[in-house]
């Protein structure tokens, strides 16, 4: 997984969870799914099947309990191809 630890101000912890998301511009469209690989107070890392556009904002639905998600917004900081798909690092917008 790509790491930009030198640029982070918050520690991240491993998280392997299915994350639903959609772009803010396409809020009326169906949600897409990614898998998280880490999360912290400042952001989240995702593995998905497409490159994301740096600077765009996503609405994420992060699981917080059985059948319960928390909607949060995050800015795409980077997105690169990797073995088996793509990875992206997002910064939460608070």
UniProtKB/TrEMBL annotation:
InterPro entries: PilZ_domain. Residues 8-92 form the PilZ domain. This is PilZ domain-containing protein. It comes from Candidatus Magnetominusculus xianensis.
């Amino acid at each position: 997984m790509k790491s930009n630890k030198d640029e982070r101000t918050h520690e991240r912890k491993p998280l392997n969870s299915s994350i639903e998301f959609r772009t803010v511009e396409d809020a009326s469209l169906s949600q897409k799914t990614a898998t998280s690989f880490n999360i912290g107070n400042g952001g989240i890392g995702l593995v998905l099947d497409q490159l994301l556009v740096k600077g765009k904002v996503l609405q994420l639905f992060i699981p917080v309990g059985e059948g319960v998600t928390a909607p949060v917004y995050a800015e795409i900081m980077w997105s690169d191809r990797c073995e088996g798909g793509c990875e992206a690092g997002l910064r939460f917008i608070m």
